[in-house]
Amino acid sequence: MAARFCDIAPALRVALWARGRSRSTAFELAIAGESSITVFYEQFVMAYCEGEEGICPEDYSKGPPVPGYTYQEVKDRLEKTSCPEKSAIFIKDNTGCLGGRKNYKYLPTGYIHVFLIRDPKASIMSSYKCALAECSRVGYGVRDVVKCVIEVHRFVENYRFYKYVTNELNLPAIIVESHDLIRNPRKTLQKYYLARVFHSVRTS
Asked: How many CB atoms lie within 10 A of CB 37?
Protein backbone atom coordinates (compact mmCIF):
# COMPACT_ATOMS: atom_id res chain seq x y z
CA MET A 1 0.00 0.00 0.00
CA ALA A 2 1.33 3.44 -0.91
CA ALA A 3 2.25 5.70 1.99
CA ARG A 4 -0.26 8.40 2.73
CA PHE A 5 0.82 12.02 2.89
CA CYS A 6 -0.06 12.27 6.58
CA ASP A 7 2.13 9.23 7.33
CA ILE A 8 5.32 10.78 5.94
CA ALA A 9 4.83 14.51 6.59
CA PRO A 10 6.34 16.22 9.61
CA ALA A 11 3.97 17.97 12.01
CA LEU A 12 4.41 21.41 10.50
CA ARG A 13 4.71 22.60 6.89
CA VAL A 14 4.57 26.28 5.99
CA ALA A 15 4.37 27.96 2.56
CA LEU A 16 5.31 31.63 2.22
CA TRP A 17 3.82 33.30 -0.86
CA ALA A 18 4.97 36.71 -2.06
CA ARG A 19 5.47 38.95 -5.07
CA GLY A 20 8.78 40.41 -6.19
CA ARG A 21 10.57 42.93 -3.93
CA SER A 22 8.35 42.23 -0.95
CA ARG A 23 11.31 41.37 1.33
CA SER A 24 10.45 37.70 1.22
CA THR A 25 14.14 36.78 1.14
CA ALA A 26 14.63 38.56 4.49
CA PHE A 27 11.75 36.53 5.88
CA GLU A 28 13.20 33.33 4.47
CA LEU A 29 16.67 34.01 5.91
CA ALA A 30 15.15 34.56 9.34
CA ILE A 31 13.52 31.12 9.10
CA ALA A 32 16.58 29.44 7.54
CA GLY A 33 18.66 30.52 10.53
CA GLU A 34 16.85 27.87 12.55
CA SER A 35 18.69 24.57 11.98
CA SER A 36 15.63 22.47 12.79
CA ILE A 37 13.76 23.76 9.70
CA THR A 38 14.23 22.51 6.12
CA VAL A 39 13.82 25.31 3.54
CA PHE A 40 12.83 24.95 -0.12
CA TYR A 41 13.64 28.06 -2.16
CA GLU A 42 11.36 29.06 -5.07
CA GLN A 43 10.60 25.64 -6.49
CA PHE A 44 7.69 26.99 -8.55
CA VAL A 45 9.83 29.87 -9.80
CA MET A 46 12.23 27.25 -11.15
CA ALA A 47 9.35 25.34 -12.75
CA TYR A 48 8.06 28.56 -14.34
CA CYS A 49 11.41 29.88 -15.57
CA GLU A 50 13.48 26.75 -16.19
CA GLY A 51 11.04 23.82 -16.26
CA GLU A 52 9.97 21.63 -19.15
CA GLU A 53 6.51 23.20 -19.50
CA GLY A 54 8.12 26.37 -20.84
CA ILE A 55 5.61 28.78 -19.28
CA CYS A 56 8.07 31.62 -18.82
CA PRO A 57 8.40 34.13 -21.70
CA GLU A 58 11.57 33.59 -23.71
CA ASP A 59 13.02 36.90 -22.54
CA TYR A 60 13.34 35.50 -19.02
CA SER A 61 14.39 31.93 -19.78
CA LYS A 62 18.09 31.32 -19.31
CA GLY A 63 18.67 28.09 -21.20
CA PRO A 64 17.45 24.53 -21.83
CA PRO A 65 14.91 23.01 -19.41
CA VAL A 66 16.28 21.87 -16.06
CA PRO A 67 15.38 18.25 -15.17
CA GLY A 68 13.25 17.73 -12.08
CA TYR A 69 11.25 20.93 -12.39
CA THR A 70 7.95 20.08 -13.99
CA TYR A 71 5.05 21.34 -11.89
CA GLN A 72 4.11 17.78 -10.98
CA GLU A 73 7.66 17.02 -9.86
CA VAL A 74 7.72 20.13 -7.67
CA LYS A 75 4.38 19.21 -6.08
CA ASP A 76 5.58 15.66 -5.42
CA ARG A 77 8.86 16.86 -3.93
CA LEU A 78 7.16 19.32 -1.58
CA GLU A 79 4.62 16.72 -0.45
CA LYS A 80 6.80 13.63 -0.23
CA THR A 81 9.95 15.03 1.33
CA SER A 82 10.15 13.57 4.81
CA CYS A 83 12.52 15.11 7.35
CA PRO A 84 11.80 13.30 10.62
CA GLU A 85 14.82 14.92 12.24
CA LYS A 86 13.42 18.41 11.50
CA SER A 87 10.61 20.26 13.23
CA ALA A 88 9.22 21.87 10.07
CA ILE A 89 9.47 22.28 6.30
CA PHE A 90 9.27 25.83 4.95
CA ILE A 91 8.87 26.86 1.32
CA LYS A 92 9.21 30.36 -0.11
CA ASP A 93 7.72 31.01 -3.53
CA ASN A 94 6.14 33.50 -5.91
CA THR A 95 2.41 33.29 -6.64
CA GLY A 96 2.89 34.60 -10.18
CA CYS A 97 5.04 31.57 -10.97
CA LEU A 98 2.28 29.08 -10.24
CA GLY A 99 1.22 29.71 -13.83
CA GLY A 100 -2.36 30.78 -13.18
CA ARG A 101 -5.47 29.00 -11.95
CA LYS A 102 -5.00 26.04 -14.29
CA ASN A 103 -1.94 25.11 -12.23
CA TYR A 104 -3.50 25.45 -8.79
CA LYS A 105 -3.91 21.67 -8.92
CA TYR A 106 -0.16 21.46 -8.28
CA LEU A 107 -0.44 23.22 -4.93
CA PRO A 108 1.12 20.86 -2.35
CA THR A 109 -1.25 19.68 0.35
CA GLY A 110 -0.64 19.82 4.07
CA TYR A 111 0.81 23.35 4.23
CA ILE A 112 -0.12 26.40 6.27
CA HIS A 113 -0.22 29.34 3.86
CA VAL A 114 1.39 32.68 4.67
CA PHE A 115 1.12 35.75 2.43
CA LEU A 116 3.80 38.43 2.70
CA ILE A 117 2.59 41.82 1.48
CA ARG A 118 4.26 45.19 0.95
CA ASP A 119 2.98 48.64 -0.02
CA PRO A 120 2.92 48.53 -3.86
CA LYS A 121 4.49 52.01 -4.07
CA ALA A 122 7.56 50.72 -2.23
CA SER A 123 7.83 47.35 -3.96
CA ILE A 124 7.33 48.78 -7.47
CA MET A 125 9.97 51.47 -6.90
CA SER A 126 12.37 48.84 -5.57
CA SER A 127 11.67 46.61 -8.57
CA TYR A 128 12.14 49.52 -10.98
CA LYS A 129 15.60 50.26 -9.59
CA CYS A 130 16.54 46.59 -9.88
CA ALA A 131 15.18 46.28 -13.42
CA LEU A 132 16.85 49.51 -14.51
CA ALA A 133 20.24 48.24 -13.39
CA GLU A 134 19.74 44.84 -15.04
CA CYS A 135 18.39 46.23 -18.32
CA SER A 136 21.24 48.73 -18.49
CA ARG A 137 23.71 45.89 -18.00
CA VAL A 138 22.36 43.90 -20.94
CA GLY A 139 21.66 46.90 -23.16
CA TYR A 140 17.85 47.05 -23.00
CA GLY A 141 15.92 50.33 -23.21
CA VAL A 142 13.51 52.08 -20.84
CA ARG A 143 10.47 50.33 -22.35
CA ASP A 144 12.04 46.99 -21.41
CA VAL A 145 12.42 48.22 -17.83
CA VAL A 146 8.71 49.04 -17.62
CA LYS A 147 7.79 45.68 -19.15
CA CYS A 148 9.98 43.87 -16.63
CA VAL A 149 8.40 45.72 -13.69
CA ILE A 150 4.88 44.93 -14.94
CA GLU A 151 5.76 41.23 -15.26
CA VAL A 152 7.09 41.13 -11.70
CA HIS A 153 4.15 42.96 -10.14
CA ARG A 154 0.97 41.26 -11.28
CA PHE A 155 -0.59 41.87 -7.88
CA VAL A 156 -3.92 40.47 -8.99
CA GLU A 157 -2.36 36.99 -9.10
CA ASN A 158 -1.54 37.23 -5.41
CA TYR A 159 -5.10 38.23 -4.57
CA ARG A 160 -6.67 35.53 -6.75
CA PHE A 161 -4.53 32.86 -5.16
CA TYR A 162 -5.34 34.14 -1.66
CA LYS A 163 -9.07 33.95 -2.45
CA TYR A 164 -8.60 30.44 -3.82
CA VAL A 165 -6.88 29.28 -0.63
CA THR A 166 -9.35 30.89 1.75
CA ASN A 167 -12.67 30.65 -0.16
CA GLU A 168 -12.36 27.48 -2.24
CA LEU A 169 -9.98 25.36 -0.20
CA ASN A 170 -11.47 26.84 2.98
CA LEU A 171 -8.02 27.09 4.57
CA PRO A 172 -6.87 29.84 6.93
CA ALA A 173 -4.16 32.18 5.66
CA ILE A 174 -1.71 34.26 7.69
CA ILE A 175 -0.91 37.73 6.34
CA VAL A 176 2.41 39.36 7.28
CA GLU A 177 3.17 43.00 6.40
CA SER A 178 6.81 43.42 5.38
CA HIS A 179 7.22 46.83 7.06
CA ASP A 180 6.26 45.20 10.37
CA LEU A 181 8.83 42.49 9.71
CA ILE A 182 11.62 45.01 9.12
CA ARG A 183 10.66 47.40 11.93
CA ASN A 184 10.17 44.76 14.58
CA PRO A 185 11.22 41.30 13.37
CA ARG A 186 11.13 39.63 16.77
CA LYS A 187 7.59 40.74 17.60
CA THR A 188 6.36 40.02 14.07
CA LEU A 189 7.82 36.51 13.99
CA GLN A 190 6.46 35.82 17.46
CA LYS A 191 2.97 36.77 16.25
CA TYR A 192 3.51 34.58 13.18
CA TYR A 193 4.61 31.67 15.37
CA LEU A 194 1.58 31.97 17.65
CA ALA A 195 -0.77 32.10 14.67
CA ARG A 196 0.59 28.93 13.10
CA VAL A 197 0.66 27.07 16.42
CA PHE A 198 -3.00 28.05 16.94
CA HIS A 199 -3.80 26.70 13.47
CA SER A 200 -1.97 23.42 14.18
CA VAL A 201 -3.83 22.90 17.44
CA ARG A 202 -7.20 23.85 15.93
CA THR A 203 -6.87 21.36 13.06
CA SER A 204 -5.25 18.46 14.94
From this structure: 17
